[in-house]
Design goal:
The structure is a homodimer. By secondary structure, chain A is an alpha+beta fold. Helix content of chain A is 22%, strand content 30%. The longest helix of chain A has 13 residues, at 27-39. The first copy, chain A, has helices at residues 27-39, 72-82, 137-145, 198-210, 218-225, and strands spanning 2-10, 46-47, 56-66, 87-95, 107-116, 129-131, 149-152, 170-181, 184-191, 240-246. In chain A, β8 and β9 (184-191) form a beta hairpin. In chain A, strands 1, 2, 3, 4, 5, 6, 7, 8, 9 and 10 form a 10-stranded mixed sheet that branches. In chain A, α1 (27-39) crosses α2 (72-82). Chain A is built from 5 helices and 10 strands, in the order βαββαβββαβββααβ. At the A-B interface, β4 of A face β4 of B.
Chain lengths: 247, 247
């Protein structure tokens, strides 16, 4: 068996997310179908993690095992010819048998784009969360800082449809960069892993701090409470990008 | 009568262009319908120029005349509430009676984005022309330079559906900046006006120079020939943005 690693970018707007779903078209399904056409093998494409419906990726990483030795260059072109243009495979390479896109991941980086301003920019409408009001960036930075480290993030995790019971709720956030960008703010998260909807739940809560509805010290209290009901609603999926996965 | 000037941004992907058309939804139609709802007056919204189906605008400028004195802030909000999110009115102001968005324009700036690279970026697919091959940027710059000045641009103008006969084919291009950007090249055109499809026809021809299919001195010959059949096919609309109009 050969183990192939894929680097994939996608505009998540028109998809039901990464993972194969009973309803809607998933990125994983598209890739598996294209690989079946090329290799005649019914493979499972393992992603570094699920992205929700509407979430985007610049550098999703995945792998699949196949008995055939594939010409990498022509396979890349053929697969891209079989899938829609809002999903592009950027690279394919052969990796060690024990490489698993999900379990081998050491760090994953997500960016969340907040778009600020009196008028929405039509070109950002599908790729950011537009806020009409001002954001106190210093309060937001202070609140974000409180989440950096190794914690039980239960307060920021939704129950998954596959069940969260038994899942270890402890994760390590290495960094949350709060960066001003053109017409907005980018929240750049780097962590060893994320619970279900964790980035969007944290972002929704940080925005409430930046909007003056909560204060930065509330973040520590939220972590301690381990109660999802106390944090804010999830930020919308369209502002979220999986940037890259490190192994 | 009050004369109102609008600054408008739109993602042209889903529209049949600026101008009201028998088939398809135009930006002009959307704005006129929203203004009718707010003011109860059936106005004509005059744009600085038509943009074709699929062409985008960051700073399209338009004006309309109306007998009512409108509260500018609330009108802006109300109009934006009546139109889709891929079209946004960024500003509304009262201007002199003799201001006409089309005829008062002194200079218009368009950007055309070429996206280069072995793999398409899904986030640029609707906003650029993706080329798989390399572009000789020096040849492209040299060819662009030959078009700066006051010339008869017949070779780069399509017959318009409203007829080009009798239209003066002389325009002045003030500048064509050829700027390297992330994963591509931006062609930034500034001129006192443009003939029908002129930017896209010039861009298509410049890309043939950059691709080695034509040489830079061909541009002078093309201008002299005054024959549209000798220039290249138009570049696709999705790479083109009307950036701003100066008065």
């Amino acid at each position: 068996m050969y183990n192939y690693k894929l680097l994939v970018s996608y505009d998540g707007t028109n998809y039901s997310g990464w993972q194969v779903q009973p309803n809607g078209i998933s990125i994983q399904h598209l890739l598996q179908k294209a690989i079946l056409t090329i290799t005649k093998e019914d493979v499972i494409v393992v992603g570094s993690g699920r992205t929700d419906a509407g979430v985007h990726a610049l550098g999703q990483t995945a792998n699949f095992k196949c008995s055939k030795e594939l010409d990498l260059h022509s396979t890349l072109r053929s697969l891209n010819g079989l899938i829609p243009h809002d999903v592009r495979i950027r690279n394919i390479e052969v990796v060690d048998q024990d490489f698993n896109a999900r379990f081998s991941a050491k760090s994953k980086t997500y960016h969340y784009h907040l778009h600020l301003g009196a008028t929405e920019n039509p070109f950002k409408r599908l790729y950011s969360w537009h806020l009409y009001h001002k954001i106190d960036i210093d309060a937001l930075k202070e609140a974000a800082e409180a989440l950096v480290g190794t914690f039980d993030f239960t307060s920021f995790s939704n129950q998954s449809d596959r069940g969260s019971a038994g899942i270890n709720p402890v994760r390590t956030i290495f960094n949350i960069d709060v960066v001003e960008e053109d017409e907005g703010i980018c929240l750049a998260y780097s962590a060893n892993g994320y619970l279900y909807k964790m980035v969007r739940n944290i972002t929704g809560t940080l925005v409430e701090v930046g909007s003056g509805k909560r204060s930065p010290p509330d973040m520590q209290k939220l972590l301690n409470a381990k109660d999802r009901r106390l944090a804010a609603a999830a930020a919308p999926p369209r502002g979220l990008f999986l940037m890259h996965v490190d192994y």
